[in-house]
């Protein structure tokens, strides 16, 4: 069933005072058949698709998640929200919190500080492809495009799997998978169903908020006879730019204006096509080599014809060519360049993994943020965090993040806590970044997820103004499970002894997960790395859920029954 969101923008614009948006959600298993095939999915309050979370800029969201799954841990991440001064509300398990065990709850309290189109999803054990995801819309009372559109429509798109994530990941992490292949989806869904019929009037302009919930494939989007006017990339306004076609990578969002054209008596199809090409840029006409299509309609005449969309030109707009609406210049001067060379790799047990600089991400015993808070002066030393690809970023500095994609496929990289500037993202087979700044725009576009072409690179830039632990990872969820993650530890000196909400800590205690000390929970000698996890798990039962019941971890926690300190 299509789910539309029609919002009276005039009413929202007149609301001046920041409000509190309080929701209480139960995560439960429900059965659903979004593409006609019934399977268990994770829903909210007994229903699926999961609800749309809405707020106005400046509102505080207070979201309590009750884990009623019975058999899996869970958690929520708010994709694209910077979590200013609230890094512990970011959500990834093992990073800024312990997973929420069955029968427990967690409350996320954060300010929806910037307007835009976001989404929330589980950031725990590869769980969001099992359905735990939904739109998060932060409306802008000072919308620079106010008056240019009449209604809003949320359009979500995703690849879809008939098997559950745990099974898919188990099958992927086999030594026989020498091609490092991720699981391939069974189909495409739109608004968590098979297509969408959107009532359209030829006098009106609509703001589409397009969100990809995908785990693997990117999506080509084209509207018959209607040009898209892009106004936002992820949650950053851009100068209005025309687009014939968009290529939307997993986790990306585009806000586009579409005006009903002044012809009538027929309905206009739009096509969403899964793209799993290894190299899009070099081969546009064959972009969809293994297509799964979904067709939706702009319905202007319910009794008229419903034709199929035909796309002859596979030429999505280059998002890096957009201009930020606020004209913010490239940050500088650059104090530090972090270079991440990504390639697939094989671990000591011969299992397929993904690596940055030859190192795969290995979850540690203590969530990284809790180590930052409890290792004192030593928290600026990456050695206390273990094999989580830790990088220490200095307060107030400007940092280049260079991703050299040594793989022969395109990958979408996401940074938590930032709308980064994209200084350069050349075409396929350009090689690694040479260090030259020749092509950098004076005012680069910003977003939070960027596709990096095969055998090529991206140069991203951020300012370190928000203390916290923020991940940088490929948003192909299967590659996260292969270890394609780095950990940016920002302003650690400002996080010493910071206190965390008791319900977050209680979730650690319930599972015997240590929440103090270095990566191994050593509070006495934080430079002692002897109990760090240095080998990726050989069996996959769902990330930290298995670690929680692991005897050594439980024993370590019993030896350290103290609670976290509660002064700031
Ligand atoms: C948990 O229960 C659901 C619903 O019965 C099931 O589909 C799912 O596979 C179970 N998860 C695990 C890890 O056993
Ligand atoms: C949209 O409407 C057409 C014509 O009535 C119908 O064939 C199609 O199934 C509808 N699609 C959805 C997703 O409801
Ligand atoms: C378009 O707007 C005009 C003038 O407001 C109105 O008369 C007409 O009915 C509208 N047409 C549609 C399809 O809404
Ligand atoms: C998907 O749509 C494209 C463009 O119209 C077409 O070339 C392709 O054959 C379609 N694929 C399927 C499986 O229908
Ligand atoms: C590129 O810019 C960085 C940061 O401003 C600077 O440190 C570096 O020297 C520049 N490289 C070249 C080759 O100009
Ligand atoms: C942090 O707490 C420890 C132990 O209570 C104390 O020794 C230290 O001075 C505190 N550090 C800061 C920066 O407050
Ligand atoms: C840092 O770790 C070393 C080794 O454990 C220890 O000697 C030192 O006291 C620690 N410093 C602080 C400030 O905790
Ligand atoms: Cu990837």
Protein architecture, described:
With 568 residues, this protein is mainly beta. The chain has three domains: 131 residues, Sandwich (Immunoglobulin-like); 171 residues, Sandwich (Immunoglobulin-like); 176 residues, Sandwich (Immunoglobulin-like), CATH 2.60.40. The protein is built from seven helices and 30 strands. The strands form six sheets. Strands 10-9-12-17-14-15 form a six-stranded mixed beta sheet, with no helix packed on it. The protein starts with 8 loop residues before the first helix and ends in a 9-residue tail after the last helix. The N terminus and C terminus are likely disordered. Bound molecules: 2-acetamido-2-deoxy-beta-D-glucopyranose (7 copies) and copper (II) ion. One 2-acetamido-2-deoxy-beta-D-glucopyranose binds next to loops.
Task: Describe, in short, the structure shown.
By secondary structure, this protein is mainly beta. 9% of the residues lie in helices and 33% in strands. Bound molecules: 2-acetamido-2-deoxy-beta-D-glucopyranose (NAG) (7 copies) and copper (II) ion.
Strands, helices and their partners?
Layout: H1 9-14, E1 20-32, E2 39-44, E3 53-56, E4 60-67, E5 77-79, E6 105-111, E7 116-121, E8 133-139, E9 151-160, H2 165-172, E10 187-190, E11 197-199, E12 205-212, E13 218-223, E14 228-233, E15 236-243, E16 246-248, E17 253-259, E18 268-275, E19 293-299, E20 336-346, E21 352-356, H3 368-374, E22 390-393, E23 398-405, E24 411-415, E25 420-424, E26 446-447, E27 449-452, E28 456-463, E29 468-474, H4 477-481, E30 485-490, H5 502-511, H6 543-548, H7 551-559
The structure holds 2-acetamido-2-deoxy-beta-D-glucopyranose (7 copies) and copper (II) ion (CU).
């Amino acid at each position: 069933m299509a789910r539309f969101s029609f919002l009276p923008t005039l009413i929202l614009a007149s609301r001046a005072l920041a409000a509190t948006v309080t929701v209480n959600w139960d995560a439960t298993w429900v059965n659903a058949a979004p593409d006609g095939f019934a399977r268990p999915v994770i829903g909210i309050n007994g229903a699926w698709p999961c609800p749309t979370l809405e707020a106005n800029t400046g509102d505080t969201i207070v979201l309590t998640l009750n884990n009623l799954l019975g058999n899996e841990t869970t958690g929520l991440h708010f994709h694209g929200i910077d979590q200013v001064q609230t890094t512990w509300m970011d959500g990834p398990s093992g990073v800024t919190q312990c997973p929420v065990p069955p029968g427990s709850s967690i409350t996320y309290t954060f300010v929806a500080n910037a307007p835009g189109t976001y989404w929330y999803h589980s950031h725990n054990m590869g769980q969001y492809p099992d359905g735990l995801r939904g739109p998060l819309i932060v409306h802008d009372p000072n919308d620079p495009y106010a008056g240019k559109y009449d209604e809003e429509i949320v359009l979500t798109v995703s690849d879809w799997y008939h098997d559950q994530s745990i099974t898919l990941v188990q099958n992927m992490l086999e030594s026989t998978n020498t091609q490092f292949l991720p699981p391939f989806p069974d189909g495409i869904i739109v608004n968590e169903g098979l297509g969408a019929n959107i009532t359209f009037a030829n006098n009106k302009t609509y703001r589409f908020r397009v969100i990809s919930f995908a785990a693997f494939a990117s999506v080509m989007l084209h509207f018959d006879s209607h040009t898209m006017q892009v106004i936002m990339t992820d949650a950053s306004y851009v100068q209005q730019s025309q687009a014939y076609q968009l290529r939307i990578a997993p986790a990306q969002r585009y806000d586009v204006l579409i005006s009903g054209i002044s012809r009538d008596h027929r309905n206009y199809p739009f096509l969403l096509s899964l793209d799993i090409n290894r190299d899009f840029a070099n081969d546009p006409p064959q972009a969809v080599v293994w297509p799964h299509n979904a067709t939706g309609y702009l319905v202007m005449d319910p009794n008229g014809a419903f034709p199929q969309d035909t796309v002859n030109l596979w030429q999505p707009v280059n998002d890096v060519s957009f201009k930020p609406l606020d004209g913010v210049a490239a940050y500088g001067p650059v104090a530090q360049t972090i270079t991440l060379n990504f390639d697939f790799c094989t671990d000591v047990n011969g299992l397929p993994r993904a690596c940055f600089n030859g190192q795969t991400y290995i979850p540690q015993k203590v969530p990284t943020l809790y180590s930052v808070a409890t290792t004192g002066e030593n928290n600026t030393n990456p050695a206390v965090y273990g094999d989580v690809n830790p990088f220490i970023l200095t307060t107030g500095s400007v940092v280049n993040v260079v991703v050299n994609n040594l793989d022969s496929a395109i990958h979408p990289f996401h940074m938590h806590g930032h709308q980064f500037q994209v200084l350069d993202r050349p075409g396929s087979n350009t090689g690694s970044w040479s260090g030259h700044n020749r092509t950098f725009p004076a005012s680069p576009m910003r977003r939070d997820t960027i596709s990096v072409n095969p055998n090529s690179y991206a140069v991203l830039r951020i300012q370190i103004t928000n203390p916290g632990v923020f991940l940088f990872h490929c948003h192909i969820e299967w590659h996260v499970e292969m270890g394609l993650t780095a950990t940016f530890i920002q302003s650690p000196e400002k996080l010493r002894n910071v206190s965390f909400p008791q319900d977050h800590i209680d979730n650690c205690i319930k599972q015997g997960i240590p929440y103090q000390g270095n990566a191994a929970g050593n509070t006495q000698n934080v430079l002692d790395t002897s109990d760090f996890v240095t080998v990726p798990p050989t069996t996959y039962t769902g990330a930290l859920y298995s670690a929680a019941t692991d005897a050594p971890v439980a024993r370590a926690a019993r030896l350290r029954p103290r609670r976290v300190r509660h002064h700031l």
